[in-house]
Every structure is written in structure tokens, then in C-alpha cells.
Amino acid sequence: MVYLTWSLLNLFFILSFFFFAITLIVKGRKYLKSYSRPFVIFVLIFGSIGFLNSANKRGEVKAKINQRPSKMSVLPVKEGLSTDLSLTLIQDIETGEINQEFSSSNLHGLVLGLKWNHLQVIEKNGVLQVEGWYDWYLMGNRVFTNFETYSITEKNSVLR
Known about the structure:
Helix content is 27%, strand content 40%.
């Protein structure tokens, strides 16, 4: 529920930014007087900073090739009202060892303002633990980061 609320809050601020920016450009400053001045200033400044920061965040993605025979499993980690977290687990067929380089977890659903960063997968006593952190963004500006560890059993796996 928290993720859904955060996404809807981000959507509200982004739509407010576009509305205020377009109104300011097309009609002028006098048409924004009916709205709360501190709110309009906050949205316009915070939104502009978010857009300026997002231009520098483009990165390269390098393809990786796994040369060893492997088994792939897709495991549900956490299912919520608006978001799901799933693990793509890559294991060596011969040894059963987890390949950290190719295993990953991904966040799906309504994730406006949320970014999941996969760190690692650990196996302890038959229980898999997925570690990573959430970056919480408001209009493109990171405002909070929190580390999470999720535990899952291999019984929930779906082979693909």
C-alpha cells in the first residue's frame, strides 16, 4: 500500500508540474495566482531540478554471456497491491551453485518513483535471501534509500 501511495503522489506532483509549467508559459504568471504560491514554487523548482538531473543518468548496458550450462528459475519474492518483486535465479547445473553475476531481481508494476537495486542472492539452510535496496524518488530527485532483505523458499519456484 505504501508503494501505491508513493506512486500516486509522484503522479500528482508530475502532473502538477506540467500543468503549472504550461500555464506559466502559455498564459503567464497572473493565471497561477489562484493556487497556493509556496506549492507552485516548490513544484516548479523541484520538478525543474529533477528534469535537469535526469539528463545525466543515462548509462551503458553491457551484454553478458554465460559459457557454463545453467538452470534458470523464476521465483516470486514479494507480491503487493501494485508491485511485485521477482528473482531470476541462475544456477550451475553440475554444482548447483548460484551464479551471482547472472542472477537478478526485478520490481514490476506501478513503480513510479521507486527503483529496486539488486545486490545479491544468498542461500542459507535451503532458504534463499535476496538483498538489495529501494531508491525513493520524488519528481526525479532521490529523497530516501532503504536496504531490504527478503527470504524465499525454493518450493515457490516456477521453472521457465
